[in-house]
Amino acid sequence: MEKAVTADKAERKSFAQSSTFRAVLPVIGLILVFIIFNILTGGRMITNLSLTISSLYSLMIACTGVFFIMTMGGLDFSQGSILGIAAIVICTVSKVAPVGIAIIAGIAVGAGIGAINGFFYVNRKIKSFIVTICTMFLFRGIIKYLTSDSPVSGAASLQMNYDTVPVKLTCMLIVVALGIFFFEFTRFGTDLRAIGAGEKAAKFAGIRTDRMKFWVYVLSGAITGFAAFVSVVHAGSVTSSGGNQLETQILIALVLGGMPISGGAKVRFENVIVGALLYTILQSGLQMLGMSTQTMQMIESVVFLVFVLIFADRQSIQVIK
Amino acid sequence: MSDEVRLEAVDVSKTFGITKAVQHVSEKFYKGEIHALIGENGSGKSTLTNMLTGIYSIDSGKFILDGEEVKPVNQVDANNHGIAIIVQELGTLDGLTVAENIFLGHEDQFVKHGIKNTGAMNKKANELLKEYGFGRIKASDYVDDYNFEDRKLVEIVKSTYFKPKVLVVDETTTALSQEGREELYKVMNRVRDYGGVVIFISHDLQEVLDKSDRITVLRDGVYIGCVNAKDETEDDLKKMMVGREMTGDYYRSDYGEKVSDEVVLSVENVTVPNLIKDVTFQLHKGEILGFGGLSESGMHEVGKAIFGASFDRTGTVKLADGTEINDIPTAIKHSIAYTSKDRDNESVVMNQSIGDNILLPSLDRLGKGPLKIQNHKANRAFAEKYAEEMSVKMVNTNQFVSELSGGNKQKVVLARWLGADSDILVLDSPTRGIDIKVKQDIYQLMDKMRKEGKSIIMISEELMELIGMCDRIIIMRDGQISGELERSRNLDENSLIAKMV
User: Fold this and answer.
1) pTM for this one?
2) Average per-residue pLDDT in chain B?
3) Out of B137-151, B314-328, B414-428, least confident range
4) Which of A132, A200, B131, B478 could bridge across to A77 with cysteines, CB 3.0–4.6 Å?
């Protein structure tokens, strides 16, 4: 049947499913959106570029971690809460210790929450979205508790010394560069994709799937802990809504970047870069046009749905004939 | 067989892109016949029957059932027309009960005022199961609780309880043990007896000759001819299928060769709860050691146990140098390869490229430095080399494995382990659902590996290939070793079966 089946798939594989399309559409989208908003705002976007992308840094860093999780077919809704908690820890520690220690503390707390997610997901075999929704609410509660009297503010030096484009850009580029290196040039990426494409078969090919899944959650938490630093230096303090809805932003960004929501073999690292850029520009553009948050949310959700429709990897969804 | 036509295919064609999968096939199927459909992989057998059962649409031509044209839009519609199919791979749905699977798409009969009467449905299903002699399967159990074999039996009930006029059996027998096959034959005969047509697709030519009345041969989508089963021999059929005489050896031809005394793997008192008990044996260098038995005999678990893939295993699996194998990565690192009976779930990552599938176990070896940095170009060349060595039919190594036929998937699996340069190969049902030409390739590859000093464990439900290929055959029964047979010209299936049951 080989010829027949191949051709059948080729026939059914609409243009939208082809890999070129998958790779090119987000980039075209990014350029188009950028041009359109520049026209609509009379060039304000390009002249205020640093403002436009001020929220890009922490988003792209956090996206990198979630990207790994989603590649292996998992989800993580606790990202916003991880960022919030890590930000509170960074602020608190920064007042008593050097900034390096504060960053490490943030990363450690992120990794810790990641480990909790990983433990329940891997060892107790609970679906990842259930586990992470639980931890999302749990840690959101803790954030609200800690910030109930007043926002937690960090050391003054934090915002003064580090809230510069070079610092934040460097932080982001380091994470992205490391991400690209490990994902593309070591077996890390291949293993993650194999787990996403078929966990059982990946196990039989020699991948320690359970160990891998656990550590990827830890890693993703740690990365988001680091993102919290970048976010804190920008904001200076953490309120009860610190990191709120980051998880949705990440999800939308990755999907806009062309990532199939089920992960697997069709995932590419470009999804992170293009997706985070596209989302940030879309968000800032709408803001510059004076849209209310409500309208923005509605527009974003429609865009999200459309992109999921386009990029859903239907071939990989098992069809039982 | 009467001379009344039940089903007729008239000039049926199907193309996929540029591939002509089925070209102008016409054939009459008479009431009360078992009509075999044979041909190599890719000859269009399944495409033809998939059009009849509503899985594919018909490009041109038509099917006439009892004088009326049928054009099913899906399988449920086909069932309503009296056409049913039993497929090669798993055709039951996880998460549903046995009864729900049996009546899938036909639940309406149990619905009254919009409410489904589960009790009545289970009762009916249990009656049917009992009638078929599968009383041990319970209608209210989840189908997930049953093994592959039993789920196939559920599928048989699902496809035939409504007395279909046409029953397509698409390479189902390769998935079944001897017992399961007997049950299927009974059902096929029953359909024939009430005047139905059984379209029987199988790669096992002996079975085809034994069980069918007439045989239609397809090659590359073209109708080659239709013959009476009783006038033909296996060789005649092979010639029609391949279009030329088969050359070279099929199985091994040597007898009486001395196997090395060097032990490469010793398995001691291996027990897996409820599956195997106290299995002990040794594998020698350059030996092909066979495992035979009924599908539930535990022989498939032996393969998993050696590869470190069993749950709660006790006992030891040890290499010559004393290394104990307790998990899959250790097994792979120490040059053990494993191909599973459940090819689509355990052997290949379906939704991944051929290249990555071949590369996976070798990535550590190919990587440079402590970080195992991968060179994409070299990796690609590596994958291509082994895919070519196994002559995988593909567009390129970026193609997804899910797009390949069973035979080609198996070639990808073997290419993977060739690439990993494994010294010990555990092959569970390596030729399941594969046509004779690829089978021959696999047998010859095994013979070549054996001569190179590699050791092979071959687990199979096909007794002939065990007899043809193995130096020694261990027979399993009820999770334990029940006997051992040496390679000999005089060995026949009966001597194996005697130890199996």
Assistant:
1) 0.75
2) 89
3) B137-151
4) A132
